[in-house]
Design brief:
heterodimer, A: alpha+beta, Enolase-like, domain 1, five-stranded antiparallel sheet, 11 helices, B: 167 residues, alpha+beta, DNA polymerase, domain 1, 2 domains, five-stranded mixed sheet, 5 helices
């Protein structure tokens, strides 16, 4: 090691590279709380350098073929495995055309070199308030797929993030992927405001189902401790005709009603201004011809 | 400690590594590949960028054991027949290095970009190097170097197509 400072080197651990989901579960059962699951490692290794976590065992799931796959079934869903990278998703045409909010979120995270390693599931599981993917996944009604020694279970993305870096996962379990339902005709968009590659100050994901009955989900990320939906803005978008006037009304409603926090990145008041701006931009994209 | 074998710039290397060792440390300390710079150690500056199995990665965020059995290319390995790669020559011609600390990372990243896309639009260029930081701020000279190297890569792509087309 070049410098030996705890902030530059990793704590000691044993590396495991299982090849099946069952092997991952076995390792998790064996090592329990001493183990951490790694895919791209972008978040985990950074956390370990900071000594926020020091697992004695690191389980690299990139050797599990099944988790590297993205599978789209028209009219049903797209399933994205836990080690699918953001670069792979950015290059995915089905995601771009059918799930634009998620495609936008995935292809604008961090930078192009990080996206070669970072995964969607990793970004989501970090659950740091300013990560980008959760808002998009909630807007698109995604479900998180989880495996453990008790079998598999699925959780609505709405409930998966409980608070900052706190997710609905039990010891011995890990996330195998996310499933996003394909419910045409649906339009969606994602937008964010950030000043550098790393931290978003506010994000928004909008999805509108335009069939017989119009339904809308408008979700904000990075403004509070976890992603939040805005029922007031959703109601306006559902009930009123799509126009700039309606968009402005929805943006104002969101700006007033979404609870924002002040932190080192931005004040709550500044975030309210950003909510107005990105809501307008996202709604215009969703409804553009 | 585990024994690993990997190819670095075309050469097969065998060495021992700790599970907790970073690819960055293995390259610099274990193999003395000094074009790979250690600066932020947290994936922000991008100056430790290398190619791992054909993908650009920041080697401070990759474990050395993950490269076992794989292939690593650094700025030392992008030239051919003892000559620098076109982007490296263009960096010299246009003075795209001031202190030079970021040069290897920019060179390998732009070499990859131009190989795939010899005439990148301004936004594509910016997107490709968003994860790299030049502290001296030679971005304008870097842009000039890319513009002048572009034709060399377009030519290479054409001859590559001809080779593939003749099969």
């Amino acid at each position: 090691m070049s410098f030996g400072s705890p902030y530059l080197t990793l704590p000691e651990f044993e590396y495991h590279r299982p090849e099946t989901i069952d092997e991952v579960i076995e390792l998790l059962q064996k090592y329990g709380g001493d183990a951490a699951v790694m895919a791209g490692g972008v978040g985990l290794l950074a956390f370990m350098k900071e000594r926020l976590v020091s697992p004695a065992h690191v389980i690299d799931i990139k050797g599990v073929k099944q988790l590297r796959q993205t599978k789209y079934t028209a009219g049903e869903s797209i399933r994205i495995g836990a080690s699918v990278t953001l670069s792979e998703l950015a290059a995915n045409d089905v995601l771009r055309t059918k799930f634009p909010a998620l495609h936008n979120a995935a292809s604008w995270i961090a930078d192009s070199i990080i996206r070669e390693r970072a995964t969607l599931v990793g970004n989501m599981c970090e659950a740091i308030p300013w990560v980008d993917s959760p808002a998009a996944l909630i807007a698109l009604e995604a479900k998180v797929e989880i495996a453990g020694s008790q079998g598999t279970r699925s959780v609505n993305m709405d409930d998966f993030i409980r608070g900052p870096v706190e997710i609905d996962i039990n010891p011995g379990e890990f996330v195998t992927g996310v499933m996003v339902p394909d419910v045409p005709p649906r339009k969606s968009a994602f937008d964010k405001f950030n000043t550098g590659a790393e931290f978003s100050l506010a994000t928004v994901a909008v999805s509108v189902t335009t069939g017989k009955e119009r339904k809308a989900r408008i979700v904000y990320g990075a403004v509070s401790t976890k992603p939040v939906r805005c029922a007031e803005a959703e109601k306006i978008v559902v009930e009123e005709e799509a126009s700039r006037r309606t968009f402005r009304k929805a943006a104002e409603a969101a700006s007033e009603s979404v609870e924002c926090v002040s932190d080192v990145l931005a004040s709550a008041e500044y975030r309210r201004q950003l909510i107005h701006l990105i809501t307008m931009r996202a709604l215009e994209r969703v409804f553009e011809k | 400690m585990s024994k690993i074998v990997l190819k670095v710039n075309g050469q097969t290397r065998r060495l021992e590594t700790k599970d907790s060792e970073l690819l960055l440390d293995l390259l610099r300390d274990g193999l003395a590949v000094k074009s790979v710079k250690a600066a932020c150690w947290r994936g922000e500056c991008g100056l430790c960028t290398v190619l791992l199995n054909g993908h650009l990665v920041k080697s401070c965020l990759v474990l050395a054991v993950e490269a076992a059995g794989g292939e690593v290319t650094t700025a030392e390995g992008i030239g051919s027949d003892g000559e620098l790669a076109p982007i490296q020559k263009a960096f010299i011609e246009h003075g795209a290095a001031q202190c030079g600390f970021c040069t290897p990372a920019f060179a390998i990243t732009l070499h990859e970009l131009l190989r795939k896309n010899p005439a990148p639009a301004q936004w594509e260029l910016e997107e490709a190097v968003r994860g790299l930081i030049c502290r001296c701020g030679t971005y304008n000279q870097i842009r000039e170097a890319v513009a002048s190297a572009s034709s060399a890569y377009a030519g290479a792509e054409k001859s590559q197509n001809l080779v593939e087309g003749s099969r």
